[in-house]
Amino acid sequence: MPNRQIAPEIHDIKNLLLPPFREYKLDNGIPVYLVEMGTQEVLKIEIIYNAGRPYEQKQLVARATSRLLKEGTTSFDSAAIAEKIDFYGASLSLPVNLDFSSMVLYTLTRHFESLLPLLQEMLNEPAFPEEELQTFVDNSIQSLQVELSKNDVLAYRTITELFFGDTHPYGYNSNPDTYHSLTREDLLQHFKQHYHSGNCKIMLSGRLGKDTLSLLNRYLGQGIPIGTPSKPKIPVADSKPEHLKIFREDSVQTAIRIGRRFPTKSHPDYQGFYILNTLLGGYFGSRLMANIREDKGYTYNIFSTIDSLHYDSCFYIGTEVGNDFVEPTVKEIYREMDLLTKKMVDPVEMKMLQNHLLGSLLSMVDGPFNVASIVRTIVTENLDPKDFDDLVHLMRNISAEDLHGLAQRYLQREDMWEVIVGAV
C-alpha cells in the first residue's frame, strides 16, 4: 500500500507531441482532416465555412444564416430535424464565430450513415422559413436587451468598437434595427454565395468505421456544390488609443476594460506574447489575480486575454469592481504592466508559469476531440503543424529577457485603450 503521508514525486512533462492527423480530399475538393483516435465508438464531425462577418453583404446576416440552418429544409421542419437527431442520441450545434460558420455533430459511429443524409440536406436545401427568422430576430433582441443591462458586456462592445471601428466586421455591434432589417432573401443570398466547396473544410475525429470516408464522400463530397473561395472585405482599422467613461446610474459595480489591438497567430511575437499574457492575467496564479484579487481584495475575478481573430486580434484586461475601487484598480493594472516592462521575472515564477502552460497544453492533446480542436486552429489559421512543437519548445525555453522585451513592445500605457462603465 502507498504511504499517503508522502506526496508523490513531481516529474517534468516530457514527450508533449501533437498526435498525427492526415488529410483526405472529397470528390468536390473539400479537404477533410482526420484525427483517428480514441477507444469509444464515437465520432465528431465539424463542417467549417469561410462565411462569417468578413464575408457579409449585410450586418448580422452571417450569424442569422448559420443559426437558421437547423430550422428547416425542403423535407424537414425544425421539429423533425431535432427529433431525428434525438432519436439517434446525437448532438448538433452551430457555434457562433466572427470568422467562420460551423456545424458540429457528435454521434455514435454506427449512426453516422443514418445522419449524413440529414446533414447533406441542411447544407444544400435550407428553407430559412419566415416564421423561424422572425423567432430568431425576436429572441435575439430580447437576449440583447438583457445583455446590455450588464456593464461588462457594454464595456466589451464599446472597446472592440473603438479598436476596429463601428463598420468593421470585428467592430460593429448588433442592435434591434439591424436584426429587424434582416430578410429571408438576405439569408438565401449569403448562403448561395458562401456555402460551397471553395469555402469549406471538414474536421473528422474519433473512431472511424470502415465505410466512414466513403459515406462522407457520397453525401458531402458529391452533395455540397462546387465553388471558388470567397474574398473577405476587411477595411483598415487605424484608430488611435482613447479613454472613455460611460456613466450608468445605480450600478453597484463598474466594469473596466483596458487593452490594445494585437497581431494575429501568424505573427512571430504571438506565441511569446501568449505566454506573457498568461503571466499577466491568463491563469489563477497570474500577477493580476495575485495583486488585485488576493492582496488588495478589489474584485472576485480579473483576467487578461487575447481575442485572436483571423484577420486581426486584440488583447485586453477585464474586471468588475465596486465603484469605490475603480481608480485604485486601474492604477494597479497599469502598475503590473509597468513592472513587466521594467523588471525581470524571477526564476521561481518562471518555473511555475512554464509548468502551468505545459500542463494546460497536455490536457489539450487528451482525446481525439481536443486534438481536433488544435488541428482546426492550425488549418483555419493557415499555420504549420510544427508550430505546435515550436510552442512547446518556447514554453520550455523562453527566458525572462524574452518576456521583458515583449512587455516593452506591447504593454506600454500610451498604447492602451480604456473603457470604464458604471456609476463613476
Describe the structure.
- The chain has helices spanning 61-67, 78-87, 112-122, 130-147, 151-164, 176-180, 184-194, 212-221, 270-282, 287-295, 326-342, 347-364, 368-380, 386-397, 400-410; strands spanning 22-25, 31-36, 42-49, 91-93, 101-108, 200-206, 243-247, 253-262, 302-308, 313-322, 417-422.
- It has a six-stranded mixed sheet with strand order 1-2-6-3-5-4.
- The protein has two domains: 22-221, Cytochrome Bc1 Complex, Chain A, domain 1 (2-Layer Sandwich), CATH 3.30.830; 243-422, Metalloenzyme, LuxS/M16 peptidase-like (Cytochrome Bc1 Complex, Chain A, domain 1).
- The termini are far apart.
- By secondary structure, it is an alpha+beta fold.
- Helix 3 packs parallel to helix 8 (212-221), helix 9 crosses helix 15 (400-410) and helix 11 packs across helix 15 (400-410).
- The longest helix is centred in the N-terminal third of the chain and has 18 residues, at 130-147.
- The chain is globular.
- The chain is built from 15 helices and eleven strands.
- The mean pLDDT is 95.
Class based on secondary structure composition and strand pairing: alpha+beta
If classified by CATH, what would the architecture of the largest domain be? 2-Layer Sandwich
Question: Order of helices and strands, N to C?
Answer: EEEHHEEHHHHHEHEEHHEEHHHHHE
Percent of residues in beta strands?
15-25%
| Gyration radius, in Å | 24 Å
The CATH class assignment of the largest domain is: Alpha Beta
Strand order of the largest sheet: 1-2-6-3-5-4
Oligomer: single chain
What characteristic shape results from the CA principal axes?
A: globular
CATH topology of the largest domain: Cytochrome Bc1 Complex, Chain A, domain 1
Structure summary, number of beta strands: 11
The CATH superfamily label of the largest domain reads Metalloenzyme, LuxS/M16 peptidase-like
Q: So how many helices?
A: 15
Low-confidence stretches: none
| Domain count | 2
Q: What portion of residues is helical?
A: 40-55%
